[in-house]
């Protein structure tokens, strides 16, 4: 809805794949300031998604879909199969297992992969890195306090380590420097110990 409040949370940058690196800006929508989210009826949403798929299938079977404009096709084409509320640990597990052969998010994904001959999922490690940082906040209030002070400009400046003018050697050197600073770990990732320390500090600050 237009009333949705989205807050910048963290920015992560992917390692280059086929000479392309992406800056991923992660946002959060907190139920505390989004009443519509707190009241969201997931089963009703999933029922609407099922109806959309049925309508799309009928358009395909009749041939009417191919008569639509590109904009009209986008409006009727299903992009999401279903919504689910997931525990943070489960969401992270789905991301970290994205490159494991034979591991699927659900039965629907497994069936569709077999149907279309897909062999694997896209990597979601940087998404996992962003999700894991949520564990560093002991409450929704502490997360909201953090997000109110965050800006995309600052988050990008802190994270970006690959720039358009860099050569392959520049990127290689920058990554080595980055992992050295993280004691062997890409600093896009926070270790469990770091996240635990952040959570404890934020918990202590909330009691002051």
Overall 3D shape = globular
How much of the residues is beta strand, in percent?
A: 5-15%
Nearest-integer average pLDDT: 93
Order of helices and strands: EEHHHHHHHHHH
Q: What structural class do you assign from the helix and strand content?
A: mainly alpha
Strand order of the largest sheet: 1-2
> Into which percent range does the helicity of residues fall?
40-55%
Straight-line N-to-C gap = 36 Å
- The number of E-state strands comes to 2
Poorly predicted segments: none
The DSSP helix count reads: 10
Gyration radius over CA: 21 Å
Multimerization state: single chain
Summarize the main sheet.
2 strands, antiparallel
What descriptive keywords fit this protein?
single chain, 208 residues, mainly alpha, 10 helices, 2 strands
Please sum up the structure shown.
The protein has 208 residues and is mainly alpha-helical.
Describe the structure in your own words.
This protein is mainly alpha-helical. It is built from 10 helices and 2 strands, in the order E-E-H-H-H-H-H-H-H-H-H-H. Strands 1-2 form a two-stranded antiparallel sheet. It starts with 6 loop residues before the first strand and ends with a helix. 9% of the residues are buried.
């Amino acid at each position: 809805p237009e009333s949705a409040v989205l807050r910048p949370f963290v920015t992560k940058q992917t390692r280059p794949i086929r000479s392309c690196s992406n800056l991923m800006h992660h946002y959060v929508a907190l139920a505390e300031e989004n009443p519509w989210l707190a009241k969201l009826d997931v089963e009703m949403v999933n029922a609407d998604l099922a109806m959309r798929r049925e309508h799309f299938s009928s358009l395909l079977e009749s041939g009417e879909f191919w008569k639509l404009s590109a904009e009209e096709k986008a409006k009727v084409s299903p992009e999401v199969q279903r919504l689910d509320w997931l525990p943070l640990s489960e969401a992270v597990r789905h991301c970290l297992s994205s490159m494991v052969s034979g591991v699927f998010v659900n039965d629907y994904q497994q069936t569709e992969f077999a149907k279309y001959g897909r062999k694997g999922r896209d990597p979601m490690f940087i998404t996992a890195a962003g999700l894991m940082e949520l564990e560093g906040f002991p409450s929704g209030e502490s997360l909201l306090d953090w997000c109110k002070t965050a800006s995309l400009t600052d988050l990008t400046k802190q994270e970006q380590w690959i720039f358009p003018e860099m050569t392959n050697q520049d990127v290689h050197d920058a990554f080595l420097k980055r992992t050295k600073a993280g004691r062997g770990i890409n600093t896009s990732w926070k270790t469990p110990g770091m996240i635990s320390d952040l959570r404890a500090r934020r918990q202590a600050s909330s009691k002051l």
